[in-house]
From TrEMBL:
It is found in: Cell outer membrane. GO terms for molecular function: siderophore uptake transmembrane transporter activity. A motif (TonB C-terminal box) lies at residues 998-1015. The lineage of its organism: Bacteria, Pseudomonadati, Pseudomonadota, Gammaproteobacteria, Pseudomonadales. Belongs to the TonB-dependent receptor family. It is a multi-pass membrane protein. It comes from Marinobacter oulmenensis. One of its GO terms (cellular component) is cell outer membrane. InterPro entries: Beta-barrel_TonB, Beta-barrel_TonB_sf, Plug_dom, Plug_dom_sf, TonB-dep_rcpt-like, TonB_rcpt_CS. Residues 122-214 form the TonB-dependent receptor plug domain. Pfam families: Plug, TonB_dep_Rec_b-barrel. The keyword Metal-binding does not apply. Residues 726-986 form the TonB-dependent receptor-like beta-barrel domain. This is Hemoglobin/transferrin/lactoferrin receptor protein. Its main location: membrane.
Amino acid sequence: MTAYNFNIPAQALDDALLSLARQTGVEIVMGDAVFADTRSQPLTGRLTLDQALSELLGGTGIGYELQPGQNNRMEVHLHEIYATRNTGGGAPQLPIIEVLGNPDDVPRDEKGYNAVYDDNLATSYIGKTEIERYKGANPADLLNGIAGVFSGDARNSNALDPNIRGIQGPGRVPLTIDGTEQAITVWRGYNGATNRNYIDPNLIGGVQVMKGPGLERDVYTGVGGAVVTTTIGVDDIVEPGETFGAELKLEGSNGSVDPRVPSLHTGEDYRDIDGFIPGMLGSLGDPTLKLEPKSSSDNDLLSSDDYAYRLAVGTRQDHFDAMIAYAYRDKGNHFSGSHNAGFYSTPHDSDGDTLAELNPIRGLAIGFPPGDEVLNTSSEMESWLGKLTWKIDERQELSYTLRDTESLYGEVMPSRIRGSGYGSGSGRIQWPLSSVDAQAHSLKYTWNPEHNQWIDFSSNFWFTDTRSDTYTAGGTPNFAFGPDDPLIINTALRGQDNERTGVTLSNKMALLDSLDLTLGGSWQYEKLRSDSMGLDYDPDSWNGSWSLPRAGRRNEWEGNFRFDWRPSSRLSFSAGARYSSYWSFDDYLEEQQEAGNMATSETLDRGRVVSWTEYVVYTQEQWDSVYQPSYDEFVAAGLSPSLADILASSVASQQYPNPGQQTPVVKADAAWYADDQGEYDRADNPCTNGELADVEDCTVWYEGTGTAPDAVREKKEELEYTVDTTAEKKRGHAWTPFFSATFNITDYSRVYFRYSEAKRYPSMFESTVGFSANQNAGYDLEPEHARNYELAFIQDLTQWVDADYADLKLTYYQHRTENVIERDAHWQFDNIEQQTIRGAELQARIDTGGFFASTGVSYTFENEVCDESSAEFFSRPRISGSQKSPYSDRCVQDGFMGGYLITQAIPELSANLSLGGRFLNRDLELGTRLVYYKEHSNKDLEEYARNYGNFGVNTPFTWGDLLTVDAYASYRFNEHIAMELTGTNLTDQYYVDPATRSMMAAPGRVFKLSTTINF
């Protein structure tokens, strides 16, 4: 049962009951009865509704009984317990107080905000009002304002890619919508990959961010946590006590302009298009895609290029609830901010080094001036949402949800934005629009029979189907091979269909008054299909101008149990474990192998050849022993004596050169062996570990180091072996434990410690062949293994502050993941040793009714990635004469160059502060929000870039210091009509979002006017 933090002083009983109702979110109907002559007891501390009523009524002579009523109401029956209270004859006539709704049915948003301080885990929450107020220009803006939480590639995906405390990627931070999951990992060319969750903010009612793994009921957390979103429901549309309701929401914003979408030339002869050059390099300069962005003077304050509306209708009946909603938004390309672009306008530092070449984002504002239109950022979204709930009885419900979102949006391959250099024409192109149709179905059943301690059951059966045609294939919208094949084709468009089917089950049992057991489990089957879009793979003609399509199947299931024990009012424990298992299969690989386009075996090396030079002196006798037989053989064959002499001398000199002189001879009798996962440890290098201390010119022959001497080639052949690469199922399984302990220091403060582990198995993207990131043929990937420690202190401040809510929470965490699945420098997925992230967070809130404020601060002490094999690779000489790379250390900040982890770093310090007040009987509300994050720097990356240049692939982008200011004014004219004016980025800052994979500036100053009509 839900617990609440109370601070109700002794007062008139009827007033105290009203205060209790306000704090618990229930409504009390008291009829004509009053208790003005009866005083309540003071109520303080963290209590359930049952405990609170007991303390509140203590000593008043009034008792109570909780009984379930009709229509899911919980009735509180009051009765006399002191004879002196019954001054008249007969039974006492006291009223029945009806508490509307189950005490566990606290309104969604209030429950979410309270959970930040009530639950023994780190969470953040955003409610419906806040979502609609600050939903911004892109779905990624949903997470803006949560300290330590970001979204990857926020402006070039029209999707969410959650990043929690620096952990991001498929399976690491799963996102669910009403219990369903839809995510597809998209290749971003030379800028890595992003895990896209397509979502329409116009349908979202609440977002809960769970930070770190755990065993939360009906939620599958990854190694980094989870993002749990819920859509709007009947309670958002139908007022309490009403049976019918409807809501119409209208919005209009400035700050954008309609995109000027180019026409494709598919099927045309490239020679008929002026200035078109065939081939990959030529198509990059396609003149039909070039466009001059609109300038700040075109940013009309009263423009209508961003508008949205939503209509929702619902009904609440005795035996069923129903709701249907339609939402639409059309937003053009946004304009960037116009102020404080200095960080992005500094291509050279004080020493004259070219910062923009080493850190490309430093030249962003030169190619894309502040205040200009940001191309390829438009979005058009249309959604339907339907919900139907059958109330089988007072304790049983069956609910069906249908959601369909179609979106048409702008995006471009990140490498095309940069273009060549940072001049005025750099990357100024507008691509055609991508499209996505995401459908979801879910059927949820709950059963919690009265007076049955063994059954509190919940299940959810769901299915999602996401059809996407996106410009993510890596080619160009208009491509032609040349005169022999002059017709233009589209090599940039990738068609995919991703289906997921899942089940979630759980049941909670009260074994004792102080001991609960929750059993749970989930199963998910995923199927990915990719269309060739007319670009069938042919190994004889494919030139790498576009990526190969991925296709496969994946299955994962898990079962878990959790005990919750409360041995005393001060102390509680939770412990449990999860067993999980998975398999995956690469259908595209199998298809291509059966067609003979891909090999079913591959030659690998057990180690690297180590060579050195010895100096020997050959004798004339040795030389003669080869010369004379060769000479005699050539003469016998009919050659002239002079020609026989030349040939015989050559043969003898090859075996015994320079008789009588010192002659260098390459030896290759040693090897540097890899471990059982194909990784190399510098401690095993014979050149440096002392094994060959007595030789000179010790050389390691790395992969692809050019033509080798005969001795090296012969030794290398000895180390080669062949592996079978025929497509087969990949499997894995594991147990992971969970434990937490909570101690209530006082009625107002507590501390908890939490330890949790999680395993992450290879995702669909990591289990299938593609371009720029493939499986290692010789070694199966191990699952990631995360260990998370969390220590938190929570203080209820209402004992000192006269407020409805006043809470403070301090959290320290350490997250360590071993066997991290990462792309290595050879563009293969491998397990690297570990990543360690440590940090601290502060969360606080206060609400006095007239004034309210909340804040969040996140500070990362450490984000360290360690891997000896990666360090070995980057310690090799990069240029002639170089002996050491700054990456020779086993552990580096954020990650190694060329991998994905280094692009997922977040600000060392981020913070937010919200302030507001309610006036005119709460009809008028004024508020503001400040969001800050610190400039990012990576000393390891900077040193590497200065000495060896840009790595060239998946270069991470940094960002400058930022403080944005938002504000709003909301006024409710009556119970049916309300209006709100919101301004975001009021100081018009020029900036990019953390964890971006694209050089796209965020939106500048935007004003939005919204009207909500309820009827």
